[in-house]
Amino acid sequence: MKKLSSEQVRDMFLDFFHDKHHHTIKHSASLVPKNDPSLLWINSGVATMKRYFDGEVVPKNRRITSSQKSLRTNDIENVGRTRRHQTMFEMLGNFSVGDYFRDQAIAWACDLLMNPNYFGWDPNRLYVTAYPKDHDTKRDWIKGGIPKDHIVNMKSNFWDVGEGPCGPDTEIFYDRGPKFDNLKPGDPEDYPGGENNRWLEVWDIVLSQFNHEPDGSYKPLPRKNIDTGMGLERVVSVFQNAPTNFETDLFLPIIHATEKLSDNRKYVPSMTNRDTIAFKVIADHIRAVTFAINDGALPSNVGRGYVIRRLIRRATVMGRRLGIDHPFLYKLVPVVGKIMQHPYPEVYKNRKYLEKVIHSEEVSFDATLADGLKLLKSVLADVKKSHKKIIPGDVAFKLYDTYGFPLQLTAEYAHEQKLDVDKKGFKVGMKAQQERARKARGNKQAMGIQNDLLVDVKTPSKYVGYHQLHVNGAKITHIVQNDKLVQKADGGTAAVMFSETPFYAEMGGQVADQGWIKDAQGDDAAKVVDVQSAPNGQHLHTVQIFKPLKVGATYDLSVDPIRHEKTSQNHTATHLLDQTLRNVLGGHTHQAGSLVDPHYLRFDFTHFGEVTQKDLKKVEDIINQKIFAALPVKTVVTDPKTGRELGAVAIFNSKYGKKVRVVNIGDYSIEFCGGTHVKNTSELGLFKIVSESGVGAGVRRIVAVTSSDAFDLLNHEEAVLNKTAHQLKANRVEDVPSKISEMEATIKQLKDSQRSLESKVANAQASHVFDNVQTVNGLKLITGVLNVSGMNELRQLADEWRNKKLSNVLVLGTKSKGKANLIVAVDNAHAKNGLKAGDMIKSVAKKIQGGGGGRPNMAQAGGKNPAGLPDAMKAAKQWLSDNAK
Q: Is 166 annotated as a binding residue?
């Protein structure tokens, strides 16, 4: 067999379908889904094709091929322990959106797999599975050269994920030979499609030919589709004769780099060696988090950020196994970038930023990891004392969920102590977590039901709104009302398509134009309230009807010019903001979403950390400089390649066709954009940032205004400032800061006086409380409910108590701002002997409906029931009676 690199395999697949079978190559989409709440991550090639398959959009070419980076974490515990599992992988695929079907898909698959000019695999090594009733698929495989006895019937070969397109699928397996056979003769799983290592699944072809209807029935699709998925890592392992996916050029450079960072550990291909598993997990996880962060996600405690954090922590723990007790994952980022530089050059380009994010997360995890190890050791000690010999499942899950400890790692620590782990209990926690994640994403189906109402409507609708806002004599070509194509609409709301239109359809974050439709008599026939793109790209106008509209009749169309102009101003400002953020914050920032409205603009962008006021001021100043410089705004129509050569920034690759619009703002900002813009930056008048905030893990949002809205904002702020000056009795607005400084000084003086008085009151109360010493189990106890302002005063009294050595245990409480505060202190001698303030306060705090914790010699708690403070004092005495030794 020929030996191919991962780059060669990827290119060969894409070139085969592009050059030989006229597919459009679709560049890999971001791992972070765009406008798809049903997915946490892009998890397959078809996930980026949903809008084509459900009929929402008709692609310019119905034949598409891609190598899509994908991420799945549903079986993360298997990574490193099997030959085939990865969290991030590339899915090669070819797709037909109502074009070719079964016979061509299978014939081309046979050609790619067996033709010596391509993969050149021996047909005797190839096996396929098919749905038992799908006789056509079996016939086509035999016709393509697959031996008849290499076709296996599988009832599970029917792809169906609920409502939407579905149909039989057929899987291709490569026989790696007897040396890979890990099962005993006669094992029921020893066949292509079974759980074994010999027959490696490399490709799946889904033959979508039915709609799974809401009532559970299956109806033939108006257009049959092909969706295939080939795992790049698996195919590369065949070409490179690698025992597993990890002994390929996609992972070995990362593994070798990790060897150099380790405590003289060496990677040895194995399925059970602890070090080998650690190397694999590290290589897999750093690859996944590098790409995820590069695509805009950042570590956090929720959603995608939580996945990244968990992967980093899991890899860090594995590093400890290899003797790496310091941050190291960030050092592997350039290695990942180099491996993937051919298809994804942006990863290596952004390596410094990626290193910074990962290093920061590693450093912050050090303390958490230490706490987790302490908890694990404590649990192991407690379990051994109890003689139960098993770690509870909820504890194992907490170690996994909070501290990043893989279940297997906990099990290994337990095994060293001759203990076991309640794995069923752990799975209960995992299942609950997965259910919470599923509910958080909502119940939207993976793919919408195909709706062909406008799919086959190809009547052109010419958009002329870049140059004019009024059209005379536009003919109605289609009317949709109540989900039906009609010839006439007498009233209510309808969707209307015209032969020509000046109305901008919502796209790229810019809202749609609004305006009016007049009939031949000059009367208002309808109002345009929204415009969207139909599946084939025509402008579809949502209208409120005043007079009957008829297909074939002509009307005059007028865009609201003020709304259009203000929207254009904000769109141009969005481009200035995008470029300026990159200039000020760094090249790692990129657009994560936007909204261009007539009255404001909203811009979401990726950035690690809050944007400082200094940087925001700098951004605002630069943009206003560009406005005052009266830069010309020019637009040219060209092809994507020429646009990139001009330096244009590509925001959403999938939206670009053969022709693109390139918007150039005085050579300061050059972007691909289909929106509307002003002719000169001076038309913006003024730019003002309203707010900056975080909207998700690693995503920041700026809201800003321009023109009259910016002027109105400044007028409002001036009015507020004048009112403030009046309230401060300042003669001039300029005097406000000094007046505030005077007020702050007065407030500080009053607070100091208050604290002094409170301290005196507290000391007076303390002298009484400190005299009330009780004896419980031979220990001296002082309790008391005081009338002080809060926890600070309680801590001061506890320090005084400790310095004077007034008793062995102190419990004080107070009511503050409608809530209760408690403090427990234990002298050092008894704290060292196991009498822990933290244990005591957890019990006592229940009386005030609260909770807390702290160090062995001091702990504090808050609660919402101040009335329970007297009972808390009694509970403290009882706890000491029960627990003091």
A: no
